[in-house]
Amino acid sequence: MNKHVLLLLIAALFTPALFAGSPGEKKKKSKSPHPKNIILLIGDGMGAAQIYAGYTAQKGIMNITSMPVSGFSVTYSASDYITDSGAGGTALATGVKTNNYSIGVDANGKPVKSILEIAEQKGLSTGLVATSAITHATPASFIAHTSNRSKYADIAFDFLRTDIDVFIGGGYNHFARRADSLNLIDSLKARGYVIARNLKDVDVPTTQRLAALLDGEHMPRMSKGRGDMLPDATEMALKMLKRNKKGFFIMIEGSQIDWGGHDNDVQYIIDEMTDFDKAVGKALRFAANDGETLVIVTADHETGGFGITGGSLVTGEVQGAFLSKDHTSTMVPVFAFGPGSEKFCGVQDNTDIFKKSIELLGLNK
Ligand code: MG
Ligand code: ZN
To answer: Which residue ranges make up each domain of the chain?
Structure first.
């Protein structure tokens, strides 16, 4: 047997243990094929090569690739063969294809409801987590409505139009230091949000609503000291959201995989992929113990036309090359675990991920 095959077999044997929980932990079996909760994890700009770079760097052990169901998502937007993160996020959030640079509006500029807003209206708890500013295109697609994704001050204002329970990311300045001199931090406090600038300051048991704005703009990249912010935020948000008997919807984004692609920087991609995979591990562990949670992992588009031209599963080394400094049109992977996960296999449109999620949560009734 060749060494790589042996390694892969060993990885396959051990990978489920990454999220299956310790042997003593009690697992609830879901009787219903319908999940109560959905955790949607978006790796911005995460194509198959980005995932395989992370897989190689981790020497063949990865949470994402241990998920039992996989498929593809077709990502073109209403205006372009190659989507941006605004239209890509909006398709996943609302089930509607829109123009590039649009957020939560259709191709005519008319606001469309996101799965987060629908879930909130039906009494579920909701959350958003990102390693960018929380007002950046991907998280914004789930809560804001504008034809111009760079209107961060307007996007921040839209956070006050829903009853979102938990949001964690960068972007403090868009709430606190605004051209219109409104102080949205005070408005959030008045609505019962605990405002945090550091996750360590949050007392989870006594916190009902949380706005954790951990940086003025975007969070630093992994190599500049972000630490375990994303997996820690994931764990914290899930602890808070699971209190709702009706269920929850949360979107968690590995925002900077995309920026590694734009920079044509293999190490940036690997660092951000490894971090995102840790967050996926937290979600999978929660879902494995809970039994009523569907976990979906996908991307809004691929970035960089990234290809792996060499490497080693023994040393974890990855060599790459890039076709572009921008996004590409290639299909992106979809992975799923939990009740309803089988619906996500095969090739689907990015808007189908919204449609299937809404139906599985019973929010279409
Ligand atoms: Mg993004
Ligand atoms: Zn991008």
So the answer is: 37-308+315-331+342-361
